């Protein structure tokens, strides 16, 4: 099962929170980062998925 | 179908002359011609490709084959022998603009802690103090010049405070910052670039000494520089040249550029009183308003540079290895295919997919600082001068025609209407 942890884009600092998702971009709340499509890109800067790292507050 | 066999589309200074006064005053007609008729074209006079539509600028910025490293440029001077390299050369070679994609990602990961919330909240407080000081100096004046009172003072000093330069060295830092930027501009002559580069060396020495001092301490500190020194990722750490390269990047991204942030924010809002009023009523729109004002004002003059690392077929044209590309993002911010009614300032506009801070791997590292500076300045301005207007309707606006990079407003007079409002009350 995929975690509900947050991920941060190391390029621009955008934080993906699976609890919130990205409803405006068609990503439903509850979608784990790992379940985002492989070609998904950061909505802030357009960087690919491998620019993200697990984020702890 | 477009192929690389298409004849090369060419333009010259009669179509796009970023240095002409008419363009600096009113660039949009030129941008619209470029977007509509020449979304990509070889500029015979500038000796580079000019790419102007939103779609193509966005694609180039996200394509790692187009490098920001000017050493890739066919006209770049040959690299210096190792024993002749200066701190400038070393900081550049190890920096964000020069290293390959994997090394760049490592650098970004290691620098991320320095941009974390605890570090940034310290910086917020320091910048707030600086901005309040600038407004205190204006006081109850009936009129003031945004450029002199705010735009010249805030940006480089904000970065100086971010990187921990003592306040009595802020002028020294400002000089350093201006010369760092000039050293990287390929629109300046090689001689001018070299002269500016030499003027950066005292600044680099200052930071190299400070890094050595911090490393000698038991704890390098919790501030920005200390965070860079302490940063570690899977056993990897930043060396001195890499830390200098981060300072270098911050300066190029956020000092001289942010001068225009302050003038254009106030120019945009005060020339649209309805939007100024709306922001006063709905301060939650602040971040959106800042980005929209930057998009609307589009203060750049000369495009961003990228260099082709290989022969690339792009939008029906063949871009050869080593050629320069001017990514005309200022035009893209006014592309009607992306922005409905692009000349309208609308602080409620949905800005998804904007490239105001660039896009892709080299997305502006100073973006947070821009937002903090812009919102602190506007909050303080609206609190003190809620009835402000542009003097004589246009702020008696003037431009620094010869600025190397920006359509730099160097005079914008604001009428505070503060005394009149108090008398009426």
UniProtKB/TrEMBL annotation, chain A:
Keywords assigned: Electron transport, Iron, Metal-binding, Transport
GO BP annotation list: alkane catabolic process
Residue positions binding Fe cation: 9, 12, 42, 45
Cofactor(s) required for function per UniProt: Fe(3+)
GO molecular function: electron transfer activity; iron ion binding
Entries under CDD domains matching the protein: rubredoxin
Pathway the protein contributes to: Hydrocarbon metabolism; alkane degradation
SUPFAM superfamilies named among the record's database cross-references: Rubredoxin-like (SSF57802)
Any Pfam family: Rubredoxin
Domain of life: Bacteria
Domain Rubredoxin-like, first and last residues per copy: 4-55
Protein's UniProt keywords contain Nucleotide-binding: no
Gene3D superfamilies for this protein: 2.20.28.10
UniProt key word Iron: yes
Annotated transmembrane regions: none
Cofactor binding note of this UniProt entry: Binds 1 Fe(3+) ion per subunit.
NCBIfam families (UniProt xref): RubredRD
Family the entry assigns: Belongs to the rubredoxin family.
Function text: Involved in the hydrocarbon hydroxylating system, which transfers electrons from NADH to rubredoxin reductase and then through rubredoxin to alkane 1 monooxygenase.
Protein known as: Rubredoxin
Source organism: Fontimonas thermophila
TrEMBL record, chain B:
Cofactor(s) demanded: heme
InterPro entries tied to this protein: Cyt_P450, Cyt_P450_B, Cyt_P450_CS, Cyt_P450_sf
UniProt keyword terms in alphabetical order: Heme, Iron, Metal-binding, Monooxygenase, Oxidoreductase
Metal-binding among keywords: yes
Family label: Belongs to the cytochrome P450 family.
Name of this chain's protein: Cytochrome P450
Molecular function per GO: heme binding; iron ion binding; monooxygenase activity; oxidoreductase activity, acting on paired donors, with incorporation or reduction of molecular oxygen
Highest taxon, organism lineage: Bacteria
């Amino acid at each position: 099962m995929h975690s509900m942890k947050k991920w941060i884009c190391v390029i621009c600092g955008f934080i993906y929170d699976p609890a919130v998702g990205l409803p405006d971009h068609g990503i439903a709340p509850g979608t784990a980062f790992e379940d985002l499509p492989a070609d998904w890109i950061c909505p802030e800067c357009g960087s690919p998925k491998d620019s993200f790292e697990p984020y702890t507050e | 179908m477009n192929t690389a066999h298409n004849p090369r589309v060419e333009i010259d200074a009669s179509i796009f002359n970023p240095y002409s006064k008419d363009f600096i005053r009113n660039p949009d007609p030129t941008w619209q011609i470029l977007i509509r008729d020449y979304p990509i074209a070889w500029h015979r006079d500038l000796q580079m490709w000019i790419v102007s539509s939103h779609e193509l600028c966005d694609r180039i910025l996200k394509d790692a084959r187009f490098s920001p490293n000017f050493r890739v440029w066919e006209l770049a001077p040959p690299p210096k022998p190792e024993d002749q390299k200066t701190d400038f050369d070393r900081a550049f070679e190890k920096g964000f603009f020069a290293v390959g994609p994997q090394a760049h990602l490592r650098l970004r990961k290691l620098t991320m802690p320095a941009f974390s919330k605890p570090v940034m909240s310290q910086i917020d407080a320091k910048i707030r103090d600086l901005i309040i000081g600038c407004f205190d100096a204006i006081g109850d004046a009936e009129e003031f010049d945004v450029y002199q009172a705010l735009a010249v003072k805030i940006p480089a000093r904000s970065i100086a405070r971010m990187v921990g330069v003592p306040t009595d060295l802020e002028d020294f830092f400002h000089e350093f910052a201006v010369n760092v930027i000039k050293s990287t501009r390929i629109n300046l002559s090689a001689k001018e670039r070299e002269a500016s580069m030499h003027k950066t060396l005292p600044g680099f020495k200052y930071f190299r000494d400070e890094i050595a001092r911090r490393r000698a301490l038991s704890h390098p500190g919790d501030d920005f520089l200390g965070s860079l020194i302490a940063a570690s990722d899977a056993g990897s750490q930043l060396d001195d040249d890499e830390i200098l390269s981060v300072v270098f990047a911050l300066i190029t991204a956020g000092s001289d550029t942010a001068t225009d942030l302050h003038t254009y924010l106030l120019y945009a809002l005060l020339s649209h009183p309805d939007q100024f009023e709306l922001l006063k009523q709905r301060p939650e729109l602040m971040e959106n308003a800042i980005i929209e004002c930057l998009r609307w004002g589009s203060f750049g003059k000369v495009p961003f540079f990228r260099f082709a690392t290989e022969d690339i077929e792009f939008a029906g044209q063949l871009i050869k290895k080593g050629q320069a590309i001017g990514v005309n993002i200022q035009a893209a911010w006014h592309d009607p295919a992306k922005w409905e009614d692009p000349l309208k300032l609308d602080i409620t506009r949905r800005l998804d997919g904007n490239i105001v801070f660039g896009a892709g791997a080299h997305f502006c590292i100073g973006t947070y600082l821009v937002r903090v500076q812009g919102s602190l300045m506007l909050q303080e301005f609206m609190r003190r001068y809620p009835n402000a207007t542009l003097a004589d309707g246009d702020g008696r606006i003037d431009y620094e025609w010869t600025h190397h990079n920006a359509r730099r407003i160097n005079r914008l007079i604001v009428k505070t209407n503060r005394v009149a409002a108090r008398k009426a009350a």
